[in-house]
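User: We ran a pulldown and think these components assemble together. Before we commit to crystallization trials, I'd like a predicted model of the whole complex to look at. Sequences follow.
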Amino acid sequence: MSYSQDECAVVEATLLEYFEGTLGDEASARLEAHAAACLPCGSLIRDVNGIRVDAASLTELSPPRDLWAGIESRIQPRVVSIGTARPHSGMPRGWLAAAAALLVASTSTITYLATSRSRGEGVASPAADAAPAQVAADFVPARVQANLRPAGTLASGGNPTAAVAITELPYDGEIRRLQSALVERRTQLDPATVSIVEENLKLIDTAVRQARAALSRDPASGFLSGKLNSALEKKIELLRRAALLPSWT
Amino acid sequence: MESSLSVDDSGDVALAATGDRRAFERLYRLHVNRIFTLCTRMCGSRIRGEELTQDVFVRSWEKLPQFRGDAAFSTWIHRIAVNIVLTDRKNEGRDRKRLVEDEPDGERRPVAAAAAYSPGYGDRMDLAAAIEKLPAGARRIFVLHDVEGYKHEEIAEACGITSGGSKAQLHRARMLLREALSR
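Assistant: Here's a predicted model for the assembly, 432 residues in total across the polymer chains.
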């Protein structure tokens, strides 16, 4: 039995819908009936169906080489913000406090030796332990005095935090003692030198204030604690050096 | 090798999302064959398939923190692979030199004319080799539909074509494959 080219063309035109299942029952039955009797169309349907089945069951390929090394070299460790890295950042606060105490103990010894020598040279005793913050007023600019406060409290007036208080505690007494010693030695020092020291103290105190302000917003930041400690240590070092300066007259 | 679709990789996905590269390597080992297969079949080149596979995993690493787990990781990375291959400019450049030009989407070419587009196949080749020889557009649609099981609507969205265009390319690909495989 032969079929017209039109009928074969319809089969070809509807083949996709037939395999998609969207041709409809009646049209599908007509196509199947035609394909059963028409050799070329029957072959076409069998071939296409075979391609579909084979394509769906193609085996997985494997890369001929390990691609991981190339991938690993291109992927970078993720950047984690300081805020989210708090549990792992920096040294524990207890350690920081211990390290600061050790530093202060060593500088205190040097200061004691320095002030003892000053007394030996005729300088009045600074009464270091009792020296209130006001004693330093003659030497330290007023805005800098804000940093001089009873140990264990914050000058910022903001939210005091344990982190700041703990790490700063050892510095306060040392700074007061050195400033008292400097106040007493002021008249013995070169006014130009005093001026330079005061300018440097202003800079350091600005850094201290900024670190404290930042810490009040982010109290757990090890980075900021380190910055504050560093600034306070610089202040102690500067005061100590100034206290050890030889007399001008 | 255990199928990447049947393994619970959620633990490694969670670890990798936090930056654990060892966990991500385990995910790579689990899924690499499937991704390599997809990339190679879609682009028609094993060498380019390797490069694209690496691109897929690098992109996945970068996007992993945004992975919400709405779908399986295997589905998620599979879609990334499809997108990367479809936007692969290098592949397009090579395809322009390949054999034939694709006809515009939606244009259905008669079987006889499609067969005339058939590239110079050998006497008889297996299906995988014949797929590699298909024109790029027809090959991608065929792989996505008949090999990977995507629907025309999904293919149309991914490829930026119409559903009708996807069907036309699929029909053309099947006819070309039949022609090639019957020689």
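Residues 17 and 28 of chain A are 9 Å apart (CA to CA). That may be worth checking against your pulldown data before setting up trials.

User: Thanks, that helps.
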